[in-house]
Write a structure and sequence with these properties.
Elements lengths: L1 E3 L7 E7 L4 E7 L3 E3 L8 E9 L4 E8 L2
Antiparallel strand pairs: 1-4, 2-3, 2-5, 5-6
């Protein structure tokens, strides 16, 4: 999964949760793009939490289908 940011010089924490709200991936985005591996994750609905340094958060629903 490719995540792209338009915010330059800002760092975000990216946390991917499954539908049971169990954390399945976590990484930091400190460039304009970051790839999160979905290898080993089953096809399903997931929730990507994008958290900025100041604590503001955006949650996006994503589907993994192969």
């Amino acid at each position: 999964m490719l995540i792209q940011s338009e915010a330059k010089n800002e760092e975000f924490t990216l946390i991917l949760y499954n539908k049971l709200q169990i954390k399945v991936r976590e990484t930091t985005l400190n460039t304009l793009s970051k790839t999160i591996s979905t290898e080993g994750l089953p096809n399903d609905v997931y929730f990507l939490h994008i958290i900025s340094k100041d604590g503001s958060k955006v949650v996006k629903q994503v589907m993994i289908l192969r």
